[in-house]
Design brief:
By secondary structure, this protein is an alpha+beta fold. It has one domain (6-297): Sandwich (Jelly Rolls), CATH 2.60.120. The chain contains eight helices and 14 strands. It has an eight-stranded mixed sheet. Strands 1-9-8-11 form a four-stranded mixed sheet. Strands 13-14 form a two-stranded antiparallel ribbon. Strand 2 (45-47), helix 3 (53-66) and strand 3 form a beta-alpha-beta unit. Helix 4 (79-93) crosses helix 6 (155-179). It is globular, with a radius of gyration of 19 Å. Bound molecules: 2-oxoglutaric acid and fe (ii) ion (FE2).
Amino acid sequence: MKVQRVQEIASLSKVIDTIPAEYIRSENEQSVISTVHGVVLEVPVVDLSDSDEKKIVGLVSEASKEWGIFQVVNHGIPNEVIRKLQEVGKHFFELPQEEKELIAKPEGSQSIEGYGTRLQKEVDGKKGWVDHLFHKIWPPSSINYQFWPKNPPAYREANEEYAKRLQLVVDNLFKYLSLGLDLEPNSFKDGAGGDDLVYLMKINYYPPCPRPDLALGVVAHTDMSAITVLVPNEVQGLQVYKDGHWYDCKYIPNALIVHIGDQVEIMSNGKYKSVYHRTTVNKEKTRMSWPVFLEPPPDHEVGPIPKLVNEENPAKFKTKKYKDYAYCKLFKLPQ
Ligand SMILES: O=C(O)CCC(=O)C(=O)O
Ligand SMILES: [Fe+2]
């Protein structure tokens, strides 16, 4: 059965000013009702070019404990590399529908990879106003090029270049997270699979929505990953849940957004928090984002780092293979 893509519905809805019922969220989820208005949160910003490493470590660990999200600037990935990544991704989503369907996630596939619609486990069977593409970008042995767009031809090079550059940033982030809890520098990276850590690229494509007041893009969730490093486009839409409320986040040009995922929360024995977040959609503009989920390999066992477990701090989480991790952090809507 052919899956109807949000992009197709969006192009039809332009003339009808309405959206199908399955995209209409319950009232307590609708962003106009459930967002704190008049406040745009500035998610903590960390300058990775600071010569004072202690300062970076302090900022990263504080943000990971208090917020579960931060942004990094002067991260060392040239703007041009990011611009190309965005350009080829946008180009792909603007191809005729039949061309995109060539790399659709096969029906019944256990793997997440491919072009598709609606992945997020939904609370109530409703859908998010977003299409996506998933494919691994690192390590090379994990890559299935069948899910990489052939068109535009520059797609592969742009993604390979980004994957190559991202590694240094990711290695440093894991190091700062480790030092922030007085651990050996490699504790979090090794805990998440070391050099076998999988880099899973996702592109989110949120077409304009005639009723942004009623729909959401990606619904409230935490990421299952260890960490997620995300490139947004310039259209606002990311919201975080902080101190019991939903807030819009300020967009900072050229910053990368880092989400603490469930696996880092587990490894830190609860000291670092994975963050609830969601996205709103826009009436006129297309929003896009490029999260890369840093995930342990399926058979790698993840659990609290032994040094963080003692009599006063018993293990809060079981140690188990990443493939056996049962996602259980679905957001419970306030009534
Ligand atoms: O588009 C965004 O900014 C966030 C997307 C997201 O949270 C996800 O894909 O897991
Ligand atoms: Fe997410």
